[in-house]
C-alpha cells in the first residue's frame, strides 16, 4: 500500500485523518526552538493545541502508522494556519491507538524547520458517544433501550421501554455532538400502542424527518410480531406529528427499507405458514412501461403484497429471517434453515440459503413483480451453519453480504452486470477466532465500504476498541463484540483495516453489545445497541443498578 493510496483513503472516507483549523488561543507560549503538543477530548474529536513558532506560515500533521506493509508515514493535514487542530473521529481509527503523530512547523516553501516529539492519541474511548434512556428508574423496569434502532438525518430513533405503550423515542444531535432526548418532538408526536409491547426492529424511509415513514415490528407475545407502518402527519400550523396510523396488516420480525430516497419496505416473518413469508409495502407508485397491455403497468401506493415463495422451500426454512433491499430493485431474503442440494442423495438439511430477487420490468401479474434471480449457498455445505441469518446489500445493489454465525463467517458476493450473475469474492473470519462467538449474527454496511459484523457471544475482556488481535483477551463476560472491516471497491477485505469494538463495560453482566447496529446514512458513524446494559443514567456509566436499562454507543 503506497503513501498516496493511504492518504486518499483518509481524505475520502472522512476518518480521523480529517479536521478543521481553529483560531490560536490567547495564552499561546511563543518558543521558536520546540513544538509542544497537548490534547483534550471533545465529542467525536480530539483537540490538539501547541505553542506558536514565529516566522512560520503553516503547520503539518504527520502520522506514522503500522500496517501489513510495515511502518507508513501519512500526511493527516498538510496546512494548518492556527495553533490548534480539531482531529475529528468519525469511525474510530483503530490504528490511532498504536500510531505515532508528529507536528511540523513549515515556511512558505514548505520547508519545515521545527518538529514536535512524536506522540500518541490518548483516551480515545472518551470520544465514543453514549446514549441512554430518558426514563426514570424509579418508574420503569425492563426498558432494554437499544434493542432496535435506526437513523433519520441527525435523529437517532430507538425503541422505547418494554413495559411502556410507546413504541419509539427520538434523540436529536446537539451542538456538542452528543444526542439528547427531543422533548419538542415527543410533545408533538403520538406513537403509542394499546398495551405493552417489545419493539424488535425499526426502519425508515424519507429524505427528511418531516416526510419520514417509519416501520416497526412489535410483539406482545413470543409468537406474534406485528408490523406498523406509520407516516409523519402535520397539524397545528405545520408542526409534525408521528401518529400510529397503520398502513400494514402484516406480521413479522425483520424489516428492511430501500433507504432515504426509496419507497419500499420489506417485512419478513420466518415463522409464518411454517416455512416463512415475506411481504413488501410500497410508498410510491411503481411503473412498468415495458409490461404487456394485459400485465401490470402501474402499482399504486400505498400497497402491500406478498412475495411469491420458492416452490422447493424446506418446510422449516425460516424464509424471511433476514431481508435487505437496494435501489427499489434488488431484494435479498435469508432462509437459514433451508436445505441445500435439494432433490439429490447428498441433501444437507438446515444448511441455509439466500434468495436474490430483481424487480421484473414487465410483470404479467402480482406474483410476477419480483423475479428470482439466483440462490446463494455456502460453497461447502454445512449443517446448522446459520447461513442467511443476516444479510445486507450495498446501496448500489452490486454487493451482498451474508452472515453464517453457526460457523463464524461472513461471505461477500459481487454482481457482474455484464455477465448477469453473482460470484463469491471473499469469506470473512473474525479478527481473532473463538469458537461459538456467533460472528455474523448481524451485519451493517456503510456507504463508504465499512463493514460491521456483530458477534454476540464474544468473550473479550474490557470495553474498548482494538486494532490488533493481541489485545483481545479471553476472560470477560460474553457481552459481545462488533468487528469492523473495510472493503475494497471489488468487495473483498482491505487487510490494512481491521479492528474490534468490545463491550463488557460492567463486570458480571451480559450487555448484548451489538444486538442492533446501523451506520448513519452518508457517514461512517456507527450506532451500536446494548439492551442488556445495566447502569442508571443518573448514576454514571459503569454501575450495576438497573437491570436491562440498555444503552446505545455511537462510534
From TrEMBL:
InterPro entries: FG-GAP, Int_alpha_beta-p, Integrin_alpha_N, WD40_repeat_dom_sf. Pfam families: FG-GAP_2. Gene3D superfamilies: Integrin alpha, N-terminal. SMART domains: Int_alpha (SM00191). Residues 1-19 form the signal peptide. Keywords: Glycoprotein, Repeat, Signal. The keyword RNA-binding does not apply. PANTHER family: GAMMA TUBULIN COMPLEX COMPONENT C-TERMINAL DOMAIN-CONTAINING PROTEIN, UNNAMED PRODUCT. This is Uncharacterized protein. The lineage of its organism: Bacteria, Pseudomonadati, Pseudomonadota, Gammaproteobacteria, Vibrionales.
Amino acid at each position: 500500500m503506497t503513501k498516496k493510496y493511504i492518504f486518499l483513503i483518509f481524505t475520502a472516507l472522512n476518518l480521523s485523518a480529517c479536521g478543521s483549523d481553529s483560531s490560536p488561543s490567547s495564552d499561546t507560549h511563543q518558543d521558536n526552538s520546540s513544538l509542544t503538543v497537548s490534547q483534550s477530548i471533545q465529542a467525536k474529536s480530539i483537540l490538539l493545541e501547541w505553542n506558536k513558532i514565529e516566522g512560520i506560515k503553516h503547520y503539518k500533521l504527520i502520522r506514522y502508522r503500522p500496517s501489513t506493509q510495515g511502518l507508513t508515514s501519512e500526511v493527516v493535514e498538510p496546512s494548518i494556519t492556527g495553533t490548534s487542530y480539531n482531529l475529528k473521529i468519525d469511525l474510530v481509527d483503530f490504528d490511532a491507538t498504536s500510531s505515532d503523530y508528529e507536528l511540523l512547523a513549515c515556511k512558505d516553501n514548505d520547508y519545515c524547520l521545527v518538529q514536535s516529539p512524536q506522540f500518541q492519541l490518548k483516551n480515545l474511548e472518551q470520544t465514543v458517544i453514549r446514549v441512554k434512556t430518558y426514563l426514570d428508574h424509579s418508574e420503569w423496569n425492563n426498558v432494554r433501550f437499544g434493542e432496535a434502532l435506526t437513523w433519520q438525518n441527525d435523529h437517532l430513533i430507538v425503541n422505547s421501554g418494554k413495559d411502556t405503550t410507546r413504541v419509539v423515542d427520538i434523540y436529536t444531535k446537539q451542538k456538542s455532538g452528543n444526542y439528547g432526548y427531543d422533548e419538542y418532538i415527543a410533545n408533538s408526536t403520538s406513537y403509542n400502542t394499546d398495551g405493552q409491547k417489545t419493539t424488535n426492529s425499526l426502519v425508515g424511509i424519507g429524505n427528511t424527518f418531516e416526510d419520514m415513514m417509519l416501520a416497526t415490528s412489535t410483539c406482545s407475545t413470543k409468537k406474534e410480531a406485528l408490523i406498523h407502518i406509520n407516516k409523519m402527519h402535520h397539524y397545528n400550523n405545520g408542526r409534525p406529528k408521528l401518529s400510529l396510523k397503520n398502513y400494514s396488516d402484516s406480521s413479522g420480525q425483520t424489516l428492511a427499507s430501500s433507504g432515504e430516497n426509496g419507497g419500499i419496505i420489506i417485512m419478513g416473518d420466518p415463522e409464518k405458514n411454517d416455512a416463512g413469508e415475506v411481504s413488501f409495502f410500497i410508498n410510491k407508485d411503481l411503473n412498468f412501461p415495458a409490461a404487456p397491455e394485459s400485465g401490470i403497468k402501474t402499482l399504486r401506493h400505498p400497497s402491500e403484497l406478498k412475495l411469491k415463495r420458492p416452490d422447493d422451500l424446506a418446510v422449516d426454512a425460516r424464509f424471511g429471517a433476514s431481508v435487505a433491499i437496494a435501489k427499489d430493485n434488488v431484494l435479498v431474503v435469508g432462509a437459514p434453515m433451508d436445505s441445500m442440494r435439494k432433490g439429490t442423495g447428498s441433501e444437507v438439511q438446515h444448511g441455509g440459503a439466500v434468495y436474490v430477487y430483481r424487480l421484473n420490468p414487465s410483470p404479467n401479474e402480482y406474483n410476477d413483480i419480483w423475479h428470482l434471480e439466483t440462490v446463494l449457498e455456502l460453497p461447502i455445505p454445512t449443517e446448522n451453519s446459520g447461513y442467511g441469518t443476516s444479510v445486507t446489500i450495498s446501496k448500489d445493489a452490486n454487493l451482498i453480504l451474508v452472515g453464517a454465525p453457526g460457523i463464524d463467517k461472513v461471505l461477500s458476493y459481487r454482481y457482474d452486470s455484464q455477465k448477469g450473475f453473482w460470484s463469491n469474492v471473499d469469506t470473512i473470519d473474525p479478527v481473532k477466532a473463538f469458537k461459538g462467538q456467533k460472528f455474523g449474527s448481524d451485519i451493517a454496511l456503510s456507504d463508504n465500504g465499512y463493514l460491521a459484523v456483530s458477534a454476540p457471544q464474544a468473550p473479550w475482556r474490557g470495553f474498548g476498541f482494538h486494532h490488533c488481535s493481541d489485545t483481545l483477551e479471553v476472560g470477560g463476560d460474553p457481552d459481545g463484540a462488533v468487528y469492523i472491516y473495510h472493503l475494497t471497491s471489488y468487495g473483498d477485505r482491505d487487510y490494512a483495516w481491521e479492528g474490534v469494538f468490545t463491550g463488557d463495560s460492567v463486570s458480571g453482566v451480559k450487555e448484548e453489545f451489538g444486538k442492533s447496529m446501523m451506520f448513519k446514512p452518508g457517514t461512517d458513524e456507527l450506532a451500536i445497541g446494548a439492551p442488556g446494559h445495566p447502569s442508571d443514567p443518573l448514576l454514571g456509566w459503569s454501575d450495576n443498578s438497573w437491570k436491562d436499562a440498555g444503552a446505545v454507543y455511537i462510534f
